[in-house]
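so im writing up the methods section and need the Mitochondrial inner membrane protease subunit record in one place, dumping it here so i stop losing it
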Amino acid sequence: MLRNALGKTFRFLGYTLQYGCIAHCAFEYLGGIVVCSGPSMEPTIQNSDIVFSENLSRHFYCIRKGDIVIVKSPNDPKSNICKRVIGLEGDKVCTSNPSDFLKSHSYVPKGHVWLEGDNLRNSTDSRYYGPVPYGLIRGRIWLKIWPLNDFGFLRASPNGHRFLDD
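--- predicted struct ---
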């Protein structure tokens, strides 16, 4: 009887470990569901919207200008931020705020991206903490799940004029 109970217990622990490893790999490499908070991506993503983030793009270096990404915060490594990619390595980007009279530009260094929120007046982004290392990117958001009346692929940036083609 004890042998039977131990056998069932070890089988249960084995299955738990196997499925836990499968779940970890799925969330790490395929993607997952993310609840967004804060006003920095309005109107594209509202506070408490639920989105799907896929992680394969970052592994295959397929992140492009205009993509919305989940990134480890450069200011607080315990939290993630949601921002739009404005520039990739070598791109010329506008580093000034929209309200600045004189515009300043810079080039994104190798291995980095330039991130900005869609709500430029209420976003802490690369204009404040500079270019972000590509390695901090956790995934690319491509589908809004909730609210249901806004279900679907994410729309283009309301700040398309910030993309420079030099």
